[in-house]
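Dear support,

I submitted the protein below through the web form. The confirmation email said the job was done, but the results page showed an empty box. After a refresh the structure appeared. I'm attaching both so you can tell me whether what I see now is the final result or a partial one.
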Amino acid sequence: MFTRALVELFRVTLPPAGFIFVTATVIIAALALWARLGLFAMLGLLPLIYAACCGAMLAGVASAKWTIMGRYKPFERPLSVARVADNLNRIIIWFIRYVYLNL
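What the results page shows now:
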């Protein structure tokens, strides 16, 4: 139960934290560029700064996911819906055989 609560806590708090991190970094960098290079240079570099911040956030999330959960390993197993359908078919066949046909 504690593990599930911890996962839910991270699931709820990490996206807003990432948004705040990216926004704060972009604003601080924009103000520093404006003071150093001027308004037009800052406006020209702002998309690059935003992309770099988003890339850093993406790399951090991916590395945390790989550290905690491991890499994705493809596997094959029947879907639960397929199992339910298979069991339903068996029940229907049994019902037809033993109730209607009395076999």
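Response: this is the final, complete result; the empty box was a page-load delay. Residues 78 and 84 are 10 Å apart (CA to CA).
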